[in-house]
Design brief:
single chain, alpha/beta, seven-stranded mixed sheet
Amino acid sequence: MNEAQLADDVFGDAALVPHDLIAGLVAEYGAARVLLKRTASYMQGDPQGVLRFFIDGNVDRDRHGPPDLKRLFDEAGAVAALNSHFWERTIQLTDVLNAMPQARRTEWYEQIRTHKCPAFDEQIVRDTMAGLLSMRAQFLAERVDGIFRGLSGEHVTNQPQGFSKRMIIANVLTAYGTTEYRQCGLINDLRAVIAKFMHRDEPSYQASETLVRALRGSWGEWTDVDGGALRVRLYRKGTAHLEVHPDIAWRLNGVLAHLYPRAIPPQFRERPARTARNVTLIQRPLPFAVTAALAAVSPAYSWNHEIHPATRTVITNCVVLPSGLNKHVKDEAENVLIALGATQTAQGWQFDYSPLPLITTVAVSGVIPDERSHQFYPTPPEVAARAVSMANIQPNHTCLEPSAGVGNLAALMPQQTVCVEVAKLRCDVLTARGHIVEQADFLAWAAAARLAGRLFDRVVMNPPFDSGRWQAHLEAASRLVRPGGRLVAILPSGAANSARLDTPSDWAVTFPVKYDNAFTGASVSVVIMVAERSK
């Protein structure tokens, strides 16, 4: 029996597939291939990506297993997702989200998330956006009301009659330690209202999530925010304590009193009386766009393209600003980095210490010490090098730099140089650079040092110039120079005819060097004074 006969005997007619069924399957397969090819061609050439709206509008995210394809391509669901997408794009074109109180933002995004937005009809869109833009004044009142209603009811610090200096917001962090955007939004609403009171630009609606993330790890520590108008203290369990300046609390209650004239007691509407107690002054803060740029600073990298794929290496103590900044924001952010001791290189902004913690501090606080009040003009490298060389410092000498700034002079002096600086942020820079730092106003510090008998072999200084303050600083420094010691000072050019030192007969004074317009931001000529104290 051959193979064909064996097959017929074992399987019979059932072994044969009728020709017409095969042809039918082949035809069905061919039609499916054509449809598949057309679908693939359409999807590859679909510039608007409309399939995403069918998925967004019709796929049940909680469903297990493959989606219901009939439901997947339901037109109504896809149109609802399409409406939400274009409403979100429209709202992003304006600053309405920044003006909205958090409650309205939450409501708006809930409509987008659940695809409950109205039809994206031109007239509806124009009317809606015009209405939202006209409600900014109302949004301010709603923000204040929303902040007040959002205060934690579990804490007795929060007073039901109105805002007090201290307030508490719970659950700004989730159980996983991540930020809770609605509670962070209440903090942002508070900061936005304060910004209005200060005639300042408003923070973006995400700015306070960045703030809370930056405060994680500094549990229980007060941090000044927005120029001292606000202080924030974050706890590990997710509770944020906020302390507003008394003037800010009074203005917040003024808004509440306008909303609820009979509900806010008179004492909460009265401007706080000035007392002898020290109240932190509100400083001029940096624009929010600048602090946002500083918060986004990242390490700089060098690339090795000689191998494939190219590799990158972190450049020690070098950072770069984010790309895409407008010129004014970029310039002011760069000025902050320069004030912190940075030098621009081809790779980025180079420091001689690890700068990211201090840059974060500036981004959170919103300020660097004001140049006018602190008279901070960093000593140019050429002038600093010349002044230090004239001091002729020997290994056994004790050294002092009064009003040290960020240490442009001290960086060229021995590591054990004592640096006196009034601004805390600059003290942090000096500490990061490894110097001995004492935070104090130099005149007060010098008086105490003299009483304690502290004397130095070498003093190198660049004192504040305004209103003749250099003279008082110069005399105070001269009292701290040991007999046989040397004082080198960078002074305004007129000092060559008027400089006075303590016990003038003890000194031999020369003015060997003059510089014209040496300081950026100050059109002033300077001289270097070298004074030797007799033994």
